[in-house]
Every structure is written in C-alpha cells, then in structure tokens.
C-alpha cells in the first residue's frame, strides 16, 4: 500500500511519501528508528499512564516496531542456550587412568582430548564419573530488574486488572434481570441475557401475585 498526501495543483511536481511494506506480525510499522521514537514520545506525553515502549528493528520486515519489552529482556529471550548434553557411556577404558591423571594436573578437557586422542565427550564423561569434573546446573536466566522495569510491569498489571474488572462488570450487567417499559408504553419488558418476555400491565400484576404465592409456598416447603 502506498501512502501519499494530496496537494493542490500548483504546477510543482507532486511529493510522494515512501511506501511502507506491511509486516507479517501485523504490528504498527515505522520507516525509521527516529519515526518510531517520535511516535512513542508523543504518545507518552498524551497518555503518561501507559507503559513506555521501546524501539526495535523487525526481523521479519525492513521496518521498525514498538514493544513494552526492554532491550535487555528481548536480548536474553532471543539468546540461544546450549542444552546440557547427557552423560554417555564411557569408552576408551584403557586410557581412563591417563585422562584422570591429566585432569588432576589441572589440564583443561580440550587439551586432554588432544594429548590422549580420546573424544572430548568421552574425556568429559570419564572425569564426571571420577568426580573430577562437575556439571553446573543451569539456573533460569532472568532479566535484571530495575525500578523502571518494575514500574512498567506494575503499570501493565494494573491495566490488565482494570480490563478484567471492566469485563467482569459487563458480564454482570449482561446477565442481570432487567425490567423496562414496552415501546408502545402499554406493558413491560422482562429481559434476562438474550431472552425477553413482553407482558401487559395486567399480566405483569398477575405474574407478581403468582410469584409471591409460589415463593411463599416454596419457602414453607423448604423449611420443612
């Protein structure tokens, strides 16, 4: 889609704005970092209670986008983590003593591999079984927390809470029993969710009387 600005015909050549290629992620696109930063600044000035957003270059299109994820968190989330390889059965048992001896001398595993000709993984497994090499447990990587990042998270959670509260209130109102006057003014409308009952005033009064009798009888039966 090409975006342009219409101008009166003054004889000068028309100025066209560069086309913005749409992004597969459907996010709002900006042609440059400066354009995205300017939009974010103006948006934050207009809505200071909203969470601040950060500019990043899209990997799926040549444009720039905004995200609430900080650059540090985004980098950590996208950094590849090498999985811990399981311990394999130890071979080259004839060189076990030599491998262990070199390891006790403080020689690194790659150097032991070169000196003994034993594959690195086997050297590693021999040292692990002999208690000469430990495998550090990989702890969960977390983004460094800052006052600003925690404030942003708090604002995001508060916005989600307000949205949930508004949604809950809408559901309560939609499911509530509503009574209103008919359009012709000659009766009443009783609504419950998607069901509607239209009654004349006389029928409504009769319904009220029967409901009172029924509830009174039902209450006595319940008490028994």
Give a written overview of the molecule.
- The chain is mostly helical.
- The chain has four domains: 14-78, no CATH class; 93-129; 147-175; 176-223, no CATH class.
- Helix content is 45%, strand content 11%.
- It is built from seven helices and five strands; from the N terminus they run αββαααααβββα.
- It has helices at 33-46, 71-78, 96-104, 109-116, 120-129, 147-175, 201-223; strands spanning 54-57, 64-67, 177-181, 187-192, 195-200.
- The strands form two sheets. It has a three-stranded antiparallel beta sheet with strand order 3-4-5. It has a two-stranded antiparallel sheet with strand order 1-2.
- It is elongated.
- The model is unreliable at 1-17 and 137-142 (pLDDT under 50).
Strand content: 5-15%
What do the pLDDT scores average to? 77
Helix fraction, binned, reads 40-55%
> What is the count of β-strands?
5
Question: What is the H/E order?
Answer: HEEHHHHHEEEH
Q: Given the C-alpha coordinates, what overall shape results?
A: elongated
Arrangement of strands in the largest sheet: 3-4-5
Radius of gyration: 36 Å
Largest sheet: 3 strands, antiparallel
Number of helices: 7
N→C terminal distance: 75 Å
Low-confidence runs of at least 5 consecutive residues: 1-17, 137-142
Summing up helix and strand content along with how strands pair, one would put the structural category as mainly alpha
Q: How many discrete domains? A: 4
Secondary-structure map:
Elements: H1 33-46, E1 54-57, E2 64-67, H2 71-78, H3 96-104, H4 109-116, H5 120-129, H6 147-175, E3 177-181, E4 187-192, E5 195-200, H7 201-223
Antiparallel strand pairs: 1-2, 3-4, 4-5
């Amino acid at each position: 889609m090409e975006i342009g600005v219409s101008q009166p015909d003054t004889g000068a050549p028309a100025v066209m704005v560069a086309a913005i290629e749409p992004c597969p992620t459907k996010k709002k696109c900006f042609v440059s970092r400066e354009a995205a930063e300017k939009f974010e600044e103006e948006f934050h000035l207009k809505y200071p209670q909203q969470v601040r957003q950060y500019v990043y270059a899209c990997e799926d299109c040549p444009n720039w986008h905004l995200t609430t994820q900080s650059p540090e968190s985004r980098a950590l989330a996208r950094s590849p983590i090498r999985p811990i390889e399981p311990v394999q059965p130890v071979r080259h048992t004839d060189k076990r003593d030599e491998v262990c001896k070199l390891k006790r001398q403080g020689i690194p595993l790659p150097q032991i591999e070169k000196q003994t000709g034993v594959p690195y993984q086997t050297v590693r497994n021999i040292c692990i079984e002999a208690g000469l090499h430990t495998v550090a447990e990989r702890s969960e990587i977390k983004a460094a927390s800052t006052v600003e990042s925690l404030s942003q998270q708090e604002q995001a959670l508060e916005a989600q809470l307000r949205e949930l509260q508004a949604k809950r209130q809408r559901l309560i109102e939609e499911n509530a029993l509503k009574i209103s006057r008919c359009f012709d003014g000659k009766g009443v409308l009783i609504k419950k969710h998607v069901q509607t009952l239209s009654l004349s005033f006389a029928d409504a009064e009769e319904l009220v009387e029967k409901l009172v009798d029924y509830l009174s009888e039902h209450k006595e039966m319940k008490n028994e």
